[in-house]
Structure formats: C-alpha cells, structure tokens
C-alpha cells in the first residue's frame, strides 16, 4: 500500500463503487415507487371511467368463476341497498364492500389485494389487483434500472486503473531517469510532460544536479591545475638529477638510481593525472574531426614498437577494417595507448600483442589482445576504478583504464576488459566508439 498508484486506484474504485451502490439503490427505490403509483393510477382510472361512462352496467352479469387471468384487475360493482355484488368480473373474490374510499390493501381469500374503492350515491365500484402481481411487475422493472450501474461500475474501475497508470507513468520514467544519472555525465531532467505538482520537485533535483556537476568540475579543474603546475618542477628536478649523474660517487650510484626512478614515477603519475582530468572535462565541439581509426592504431603500434622489440614481444595489427569516428584524435590515441601499454607492460617477454579494428552494431571496436597472465575474475569489475591496481609487482599508477573509461564516456562509447576464452591466458581489452561514414 506504499504505492501511490495503488492508493489512488483503491480510493477511486471504492468511491466509484459507493456512488454506484447509492445510485443503484435510489434508482431502484424510485422506480418501484413510480411503478406502484402508475399501477394505482390505473386502478383509479378504471373505476372512474366505469362510473362516468356508465359502462358499469354493460359488464356481464355472471362471469365464470376463476375465468380471469391472474394478472388482470378485478372489478366488482355494488348497488345501494343490495348485499350481493351487482356485477363482478371474478365472483369468487369477495372484496370488502365496507373498505374506505380510495386505496387500501386487504387480505382476501388468503391473498393480499390492492383495492381502489369509488363510493358514489348510486353505486360502489371496487377495482382490485393482486399485490403479488403488482410486486412482480414493479420488481422486474426496477431491477432493470440496476443494469447500467452493474455494467458501468466495473468499466469505471478499469478506466480508473488505466488513467492512474497513465498519469503516473511519467513519474515512473522520471524515477528511472534519476536512477540512471551518470556521475560522469550529469544531465538535468526534462520537465516536458511532467505534471505541474511534480515540477518543483524536478526543479530541486535539477538544481542539485547542477550544483553537484559544478563542484565536481571545480574539483576536476583543481586536479588538472595542480598536475599541470607540478609538471614544471618535476621536469626541472629530473633535469637537475640528470646533470648531477656524472658527479655521483660510485658508491652512491644505486641509491641515486632509485632517486631518479622515483622522479620518473612521479612524473608519470602526474602526467596520467593530467590526462584523466582532461578526459573528464566537457568536450569542446570545435576539436572534433573525422578520425581514421586504423591510422591511429598504426601510429600507436609504431610508437611502442621499440619497447616491444626490446622485450621480444611480437606486436602487430592484423584485422584492420577501415572505420571512422567523430572525435578528438588525441583522445582516441590516448585511450589506445593506455590499452597497448597495459598489454605490453603485463605481458612477459617473448609474448604477443595483437590489435584489430572491426565494425559491429554501428560501433567501431578496437581490440587489444595479449598473452599475459590475465586478471583474477574477482578483480575484473574493479579495474576501471581510479588508482586500482590488480598487479602490484609491476609499476603503474592505476589510472590508465580510468582514463580510457573517461574518454569513452565522452563519446557515449564503451570499454571492456575480459580474460581470453580461447584457451590461452591473456586479456582482451576493447574500446568501442560510434562509427561515422
Ligand atoms: N593487459 C593486462 N593484463 C593484465 N593485467 C592488466 C592488464 N591491463 C590492466 N591490468 C590490471 O589492471 C590494473 C589497472 O590498469 P590501469 O591501466 O588502470 O593502471 P596501471 O596500468 O596500473 O597504471 P597506469 O596505466 O596508470 O600507468 C593494472 O594495475 C593491472 O593490474
Ligand atoms: Mg595501465
């Protein structure tokens, strides 16, 4: 009963049912009273017509007993001073002559009769009808007045259900929209078609979304600025260390080497941080071009070829479908470089890294397959998290895949990482972007 829809449907259906029942009962009662008045009118009219038209005398003197159908009215005429009826359409029925003028209900021959008595100086005319017949007539007619209600009420229930469901559908879809808000892609909710009562609610959610997006943007800018600012001193430090190298005493060479690699590591971390902050920023539409994906793949392979060769890793791009995407070319390069650098970094010497490009479901997929150890299935869902590292023996900042994710988000693309399922160990890393002709 927490659901607004159920509450509304129940309340409206109960209301409709109550109105239906009340309306049904009252129309039934009114119809019965009306029918009864009509039947009375008929008795009264029959009596007055018999008297005023002088037709009373033309009734047969001796009617056969019990010859009248049950439903018919019985007429009995009495003459002043004579004790037995002067005329009667049903002689077996002894109507009470002394009945008060007007209408009366009396029991005659063990049955209830509705009797109209017209008392005139020369005669008494009594017109009677069985109460049971009257009851059957009024009952049957009045029952008929209930049919529209009996049919309409369930129809109104269905209508209520449909109307309420339709009215709340927009609310349900809004709920789904709120649930689907992507923290990397803040979009305010649309108010078109939203019921007026819900608008203030949507407006406050939108305000909150905007504030959240703003604070995330401020934070992103801070990280980007900090990383950018840190680059210069780190470069200077590296330069100074390089200049100092020839002057280091042989006994201190090892420790100095550690210092140098520490500086290099910091430099890499800062560079990755800066890339991530940039990939998170809103896309500048004027930087978009039609990018030839194969060209980027060839460039990246050429870039890493020296490192791969040094480690005896066979890197190649075999299946290369010609495909284009609309993007900032640098973004595609950065995403791919991160995947390829992972493949090379985590694949042991003498391994193999294969790149391929294919079109599937109007998406361009770039796939990087390696022969490394793969990743523990339990850790796979977390590899796109910032600073997450599944393998701590090899150096890295844990930001590469977060950068890939941020870049695909920018273009409504997809990124995925899975273990190979062709019997070999290794990773299949892929990114998909929307293809353009
Ligand atoms: N091809 C791969 N084979 C095995 N493990 C992988 C592979 N690619 C990624 N991983 C695992 O996923 C983790 C996250 O990768 P990610 O690229 O985000 O960070 P990183 O490589 O550690 O650091 P960075 O790329 O920023 O220098 C890695 O630490 C590694 O354990
Ligand atoms: Mg990496």
TrEMBL record:
Please give the Pfam families that the UniProt record associates with this protein.
Answer: HATPase_c, HisKA
Q: Where in the cell is it found?
A: Membrane
Identify the enzyme class.
transferase
GO molecular function of the protein, one example?
A: ATP binding
Q: Where is the Histidine kinase domain?
A: 225-437
What would be one Gene Ontology cellular-component term for the protein? plasma membrane
Q: How does it sit in the membrane?
A: Multi-pass membrane protein
**What is this enzyme's catalytic activity, as reactions?**
ATP + protein L-histidine = ADP + protein N-phospho-L-histidine
Q: Which UniProt keywords apply?
A: ATP-binding, Kinase, Membrane, Nucleotide-binding, Phosphoprotein, Transferase, Transmembrane, Transmembrane helix, Two-component regulatory system
Q: Where are the transmembrane segments?
A: 146-164
Show the InterPro entries listed in the entry: HAMP_dom (IPR003660), HATPase_C_sf (IPR036890), HATPase_dom (IPR003594), His_kinase_dom (IPR005467), HisK_dim/P_dom (IPR003661), HisK_dim/P_sf (IPR036097), Sig_transdc_His_kin-like_C (IPR004358), TCS_sensor_his_kinase (IPR050428)
What residue stretches are annotated with the HAMP domain?
Answer: 165-217
EC number(s) given by UniProt: 2.7.13.3
- Specify the protein name: histidine kinase
Originating organism:
Caballeronia glathei
């Amino acid at each position: 009963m927490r659901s607004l829809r159920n509450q509304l449907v129940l309340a409206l259906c109960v209301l409709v049912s109550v109105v239906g029942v009340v309306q049904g009962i009252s129309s039934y009662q009114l119809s019965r009273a009306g029918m009864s008045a009509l039947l009375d009118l008929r008795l009264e009219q029959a009596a007055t017509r018999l008297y005023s038209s002088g037709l009373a005398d033309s009734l047969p003197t001796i009617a056969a007993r019990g010859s009248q159908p049950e439903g018919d009215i019985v007429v009995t005429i009495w003459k002043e001073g004579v004790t037995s009826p002067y005329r009667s359409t049903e002689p077996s029925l002894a109507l009470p002559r002394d009945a008060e003028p007007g209408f009366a209900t009396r029991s005659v021959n063990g049955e209830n009769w509705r009797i109209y008595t017209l008392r005139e100086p020369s005669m008494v005319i009594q017109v009677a009808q069985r109460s049971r017949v009257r009851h059957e007539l009024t009952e049957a007619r009045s029952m008929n007045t209930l049919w529209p209600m009996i049919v309409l009420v369930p129809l109104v229930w269905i209508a209520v259900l449909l109307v309420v469901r339709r009215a709340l559908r927009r609310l349900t879809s809004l709920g789904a929209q709120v649930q689907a808000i992507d923290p990397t892609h803040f979009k305010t909710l649309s108010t078109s078609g939203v019921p007026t009562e819900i608008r203030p609610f949507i407006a406050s959610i939108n305000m909150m979304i905007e504030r959240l997006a703003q604070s995330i943007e401020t934070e992103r800018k801070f990280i980007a600025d900090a990383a950018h600012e840190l680059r210069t001193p780190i470069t200077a430090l590296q330069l100074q260390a390089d200049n100092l190298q020839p002057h280091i005493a042989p006994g201190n060479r090892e420790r100095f080497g550690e210092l140098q690699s520490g500086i290099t590591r910091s430099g890499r971390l800062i560079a990755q941080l800066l890339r991530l902050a940039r990939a998170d920023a809103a896309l500048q539409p004027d930087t978009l071009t039609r990018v030839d994906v194969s060209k980027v793949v060839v460039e990246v392979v050429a870039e890493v070829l020296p490192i791969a060769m040094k480690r005896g890793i066979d890197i190649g791009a075999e299946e290369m479908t010609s495909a284009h995407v609309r993007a900032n070319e640098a973004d595609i390069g950065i995403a791919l470089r991160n995947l390829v650098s992972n493949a090379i970094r985590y694949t042991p010497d003498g391994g193999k890294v294969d790149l391929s490009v294919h079109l599937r479901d109007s998406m361009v997929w770039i796939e990087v397959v390696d022969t490394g150890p793969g990743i523990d299935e339990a850790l796979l869902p977390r590899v796109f998290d910032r600073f997450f590292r599944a393998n701590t023996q090899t150096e890295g900042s844990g930001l590469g895949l977060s950068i890939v994710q941020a870049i695909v988000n920018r273009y409504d693309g997809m990124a995925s990482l899975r273990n190979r399922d062709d019997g070999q160990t290794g990773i299949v890393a892929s990114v998909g972007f929307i293809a353009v002709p």
